[in-house]
Predict the structure.
Amino acid sequence: MYNEKVMDHFQNPRNAGEMLNPSGVGEVGNMKCGDIMKIFIKVEEGRIQDINFLTFGCGAAIASSSMLTELVKGKTLEEALNITNMDVAEKLGGLPDAKLHCSNLAADALHKAIENYQANNSPV
Amino acid sequence: MKRIYLDHGATTPPHADVIEAMLPYFRQYFGNPSSVHSFGREARRALDESREKTALALGVKPEEIIFTSGGTEANNLAIQGVVEALAARGRHVITSAVEHHAVLDTVKIMADKGCSLTVLPVDRCGIVDPDDLRKAIRDDTVLVTIMTANNEIGTVQPVEELARTCRDKGVPFHTDAVQAIGSIPLDLRGVPIDLLSLSAHKFYGPKGIGALFVRKGTKLGKLMFGGGQERKMRPGTENIPAIVGLAKAIEMATKDIPGKSAAITVLRDRLIEKLLNEIDAVQLNGHPVHRLPGNVNISVNFVEGEGLLLDLDLNGIAASSGSACTSGSLEASHVLMACGMDHQTAHGSLRLTLGHGNTLEEVDYTVATLKNSVDRLRGMSSLYKNYRRQVDKNHAGGEKTCTTKR
């Protein structure tokens, strides 16, 4: 069902866990589909210095969260905003069709985390 | 890696004696039972004997057995056949919310074609209340179809009472007994079931073969047209090796059911007890007592079932889940939802179905493996973190089994 790369990220997820005092947090998903992803970012000098995820979901949901964190670490906010869900799936070497649209939401969660950071840090 | 098979609800390994019984019918006895010559007569003899064995195992007459391609075809033939045959009497069909798709999808098609349909609810353990059935039967009811035992949660219905209710009102009663045959005793001499579906691969027989029992006097239309096989009810050259395999398998499966069930029930109850005691926030789905001897279905809260299945598979353990992610339809199990479960709990469902080959050591290894997987996945789950914060505040603990009248 899943390729080796997806299984590797499922078995050995990168950057899983909660982050203390994040600069921004984004959460997407709903319980009906059974996938809920939460992304935490630490931003310094316009770059994402650190990133963590917490995901309730299937193998594809966990693997895409993990892959996203690898893609994003060290990127500028602008670069990070350009990353799409399909980029994540591509980097994973593809996901089963049924999972592409329901479990592949990590980039959406990242974008929300960036928006959250920007809202927190907008000049008053 | 040692592999452990805990998915006997999906299919069972064919018994060695079943395979042995089948082999000659692939090789020397390959004749067509409709042929007049000696090759045909050999195959005919095997067909007749298989029908007799199957009938004997169920306590019915040989002419009441129609061999089909499996449980799905048997269910289709029963439902579509009765509805068509009794069209002049009425068009109302009653079923339950927890049926297998082979029944539910068929009755829904019947509804699209103009039947009216009543889907009876179940309680939190998955049991149909016979009082609900009594109230639902109308003058134009032509068929009631309710399964003997559920494939996902293992709940065993009060099928005798449901059948009697139908008999009292003169309505044909069909039951999908695919999961029940060989697991719970079922003697059709004493129970007024009019039609019953079974499938050989669920009781250590081959795939692609099943049967429909149709009690003498029950009116039934046909699905297929062609030759005169199976009294014209199921035309097409009979699959003799598979039929021989079914007969051997049902003969073996229905011998000493109480003894064999008791052995599997010991494993089941140990598995349930260890899972509920050793893993936090786990609940048993289905009925605590009225359940198939080999069925364990739990919900592991705050994790998603597919993740559990993948982890178990990586450790050689085969199981299944009612989670949307594993269904192919992206919908959580209709059975769990009918039992009043919320989406989150349904997504965390895990089915472990035991069979004759399983051991206590396998049960213990499975619990240990599952514990590691649950810890790992909950470590990544924001829902679990929220729950722990709540629990630490309130010392809350949920119910571990469902509540039911029965």
Notes: Helices of chain A lie at 4-11, 59-72, 77-81, 85-91, 97-100, 106-120. The domain at 4-118 of chain A is CATH 3.90.1010.10 (Sufe protein. Chain: A). The longest strand of chain A covers residues 35-44. The interface with chain B takes residues 2, 7, 10-11, 13, 16-18, 27, 31-36, 38, 53-62, 98-99, 102-103 of chain A (CB under 8 Å).
